[in-house]
Please model this.
Amino acid sequence: MKNCLPKIDLHCHLDGSVRPETILDLAKKEDVKLFSYDIDDIKKALIAPFDCESLNEYLERFKIPNDIMQSKESLKRITFELLEDAAKENVKYIEIRFAPLLHTLKGLSVDEIIQSVIDGIKLGEEKYEIKGNLILSCMRNMGEDAAIKVIEEGKKFLGNYVVAIDLCGPEEKGFVHDFVKAIGLAREYGYRVTIHAGETGFGINVLDAVKLLGAERIGHGIFITNCDEAYKIVKEKGITLETCPTSNVQTKAVKSFDSHPFYDFYKDGINVTINTDNRTVSNIDMTNECNIAFEKFKINNDDYKNIYLKTVEATFADEDTKEWLKQFI
Model:
């Protein structure tokens, strides 16, 4: 229905967006042992059920992709294919996030890992009318020293596709306090900041992410609904929420699309965006997410245009790219 609309995806995890067929092909080429080589079994292992019990159950789907994504060739190919898939549904700009330290199991350096993903973006940009940038994710469960390692080794790529830093993984109340030094260092170096927070019940984490880490955008942020201070600071500071409707229902951030606060946020002047989170794990794409916005949240064409233009401004892209994106709406 909405495939023709121009789209921007600000919250898309690389390892959650791998084609199942590519998993099989790379496993055979790179001699990676899988529990099965049947495509249906692989799809079942990669795609989370719509009725997940929790975020943690959802995150279990990332093990197989990470086992595969341990070579320069696999990282480049998977990144290219993500841009290819996105471009075919008229996504004009995508910010891909991934955690470099998850891809060091077979000896790749952080430098090699980041460069391989950049090479995949470049290839996609050469072939399709799409632009991309990279957000380096730091896994909260790896601790602050690991985050500092990513920040230090990634800084040479700032201005060369790497635009921002992120904290992700299982969310616990108060995690922000463990990463103040790391994210402060990132800001000093020139990284933009987006933080996964308020996805699983802790609106206070959003407040802390903005106040203590200088977050400009929040991944998900659904639970500002249970923290008045978080809601207020997001609204007053114009913090952008990277909302991912299907993922939010799957991980039980909300019970259903009907109870998703997306349109209430929008009507109250909060900056909301439409994103996939994980194309394969959630078995969706941007067209699907836009359809949900129109059909479940009842936005209209003027709403979509407004959200698109707000999303352009929320990107971590340069001004030339922002001007390029505005022409499509």
